[in-house]
């Protein structure tokens, strides 16, 4: 089956992008170079097409309660205009997808799912919310999502915003969203969220598909004086890796619970309904048991001491004598040379006895033990004023 194109496919080709399949979608891998696009996001700003992501809306008096049963987090605790990172798990506690949940109004939520998992998430939400006073609508096909990420993102996005809404956009804290009109064509309605997947300040702009091309072109024009560069999947991956952010299919999958991934904080085992009763959300029993058990593996950061990078799927091993490959203690989930740090980095699942900061390990790179050391995540944290 052919990959689906986003509404911006022709724009990417016009900019000379190399296209690739990702999660069932045809997406830009890069426009110029991975390094240049990564550095643009860290120093100025990058422009991303995220229209492959899924957008599922839940509306009605029972929306919050329904999501409390469907997801591991507490939707009831989200204030209007704010967002939370969450997960949808199976009965055995395995992660089906990681999500961002926005509360747009008291009885209106938006759940943003990863591209390849969006149909599954939409089906699961519809099934899990059955019986609640809520309407679940998958608006993925009608929604385009464009992100501006980097230190100059606010300047660019406010330049795109109707003057009446600029103050609200500028005032957004991290993980918050507001409705705004954008200066695109005769005016485009948008949900502007201060969220992102790069470790930098930035915004994600949800608009109707009909406004996607106009917004993309307007963003490029508004960002020209600020050093904005279109950025593809390769830069997005190295940026999120430096920021220690998990990627479904790598750090998260159906063999993993939130606790192995170091994300147990998003699981609310103690959440209660309006009557004060414990919410038995899907996967709760398995996750409670998992939290009480010692871990079999732990997600860690690895910083390379040499120049050769690892790859996802490579074995993590103990360091042997004179660079030999020792006993296997884990597996790499994501890896890349870090443009910001100037050395290879990786995330990996390892056994608990070797997960402490400073432990010297190695990665088996085609039969050669390349030295790595365990370090805290994230590898990169942006400076804040």
Automatic annotation (TrEMBL):
Catalytic reaction list: N(6)-[(R)-S(8)-aminomethyldihydrolipoyl]-L-lysyl-[protein] + (6S)-5,6,7,8-tetrahydrofolate = N(6)-[(R)-dihydrolipoyl]-L-lysyl-[protein] + (6R)-5,10-methylene-5,6,7,8-tetrahydrofolate + NH4(+)
Domain GCVT N-terminal: from-to ranges: 10-271
Entry keyword annotation includes Methyltransferase: yes
UniProt feature coiled coil, ranges: none
InterPro entries per UniProt: GcvT, GcvT/YgfZ/DmdA, GcvT/YgfZ_C, GcvT_bac, GcvT_C, GCVT_N, TrmE/GcvT-like
Ranges where the Aminomethyltransferase C-terminal domain occurs: 297-380
Keyword Transmembrane on entry: no
Keywords: Aminotransferase, Methyltransferase, Transferase
Catalytic class of the enzyme: transferase
Signal sequence coordinates: none
Enzyme Commission identifier(s): 2.1.2.10
GO biological process: one example: methylation
Lineage: superkingdom: Bacteria
GO MF annotations, alphabetized: aminomethyltransferase activity; methyltransferase activity; transaminase activity
Transmembrane segments: none
Annotated binding of substrate, by residue: 204
Cellular component GO terms, alphabetical: cytosol; glycine cleavage complex
Pfam families tied to this protein: GCV_T, GCV_T_C
Purpose of the protein: The glycine cleavage system catalyzes the degradation of glycine.
Quaternary data: The glycine cleavage system is composed of four proteins: P, T, L and H.
Family from the record: Belongs to the GcvT family.
Entries under PANTHER family matching the protein: AMINOMETHYLTRANSFERASE, AMINOMETHYLTRANSFERASE, MITOCHONDRIAL
Name of the protein this chain belongs to: Aminomethyltransferase
Organism encoding this protein: Xylanimonas ulmi
